[in-house]
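Troubleshooting log. The previous structure file for this entry was overwritten by mistake, so regenerating from the original sequence record. Sequence copied from the archived sheet and checked twice against the printout by T.R.
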Amino acid sequence: MTQIVKIKGMNKYFGKLHVLKDIDLTVEQGEVVVIIGASGSGKSTLIRCVNGLEEFESGTLEVDNHPLAPKGGNQKALAEIRKEVGMVFQQFNLFPHLTVRKNIMLAPMKVKNAAQVVANATAERLLNRVGIGNQADKYPSQLSGGQQQRVAIARALAMEPRLMLFDEPTSALDPEMIGEVLDVMRELAKEGMTMIVVTHEMGFAREVADRVIYIHEGQIVEEGKPADVFDNPQNERTQSFLSRVLAH
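Regenerated output below.
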C-alpha cells in the first residue's frame, strides 16, 4: 500500500511548551485513522502540522511524497500539499456573504483554475453527495449548523483531495445535528477516502476507524485496531481516559 503520510520523530513547540514529542506516524492510502485524547493533548496540532498550518521544529513530515521541512521550509512542497489535502475544522469557516454554491466554487476556481461552469457543476455534484443539493443558493446563515458543516465538507472535497483531515468536526454542533455530519464521513470512508479524524465521538471511532491512536501530553502512547484499543487498552493512561469518556 502507498503511504500518504509519513512522520518520523516530529517535535512541535509553542514557545517553551513541548506540544508534540517525537511523533512517529504513517497513514496508508484509503486508511481511516482516528485520533483520540483529552483536550490539550496535541491532537489538533498534529493534524494542523500535516496540512502545513503549523510549523514543526524537528523531525520529518512527508505528505503524498511531498517532504515538508521543519520551521516552514520547502514552500513548494507546502503549496502542493495544500492542493491535495482537504481540511474540515470545528468552526465551519464559510464566507457569510457568498451563497453555499459560491463557497464551494471558490476553491477549484482560485486554486485549480477551473472554469466557472466546471466549478458550478462540481458544487452541485458535491452538495448532492452530502445530502443538501436543495440548499445551493442559500447563504450560510440560513442553514443549520449540521448543514453548514456538510457544506464545509463539500468545499474541502471540491479540491479533489488525496487526504481529508477532520478537526473535531462535530464539536460545535447541537447533539441532533452530529449524526448527519458523521453519516457523510461514514460514506467518505466507505468510498475509500484517506482520512485522519480528531474526534470525541467514540462510537464513530469504533465503527469507522481502521486504526485508533491515543495521544497523551503530546505523545502517541497507544495505537491499534478499534476493538483492541477500546476493549483491551494496554497503557494505563489509555485505560484511565477511556474509563472516563465511555462512562458518559
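The chain is about 40% helix and 25% strand. Archived copy saved in two places this time.
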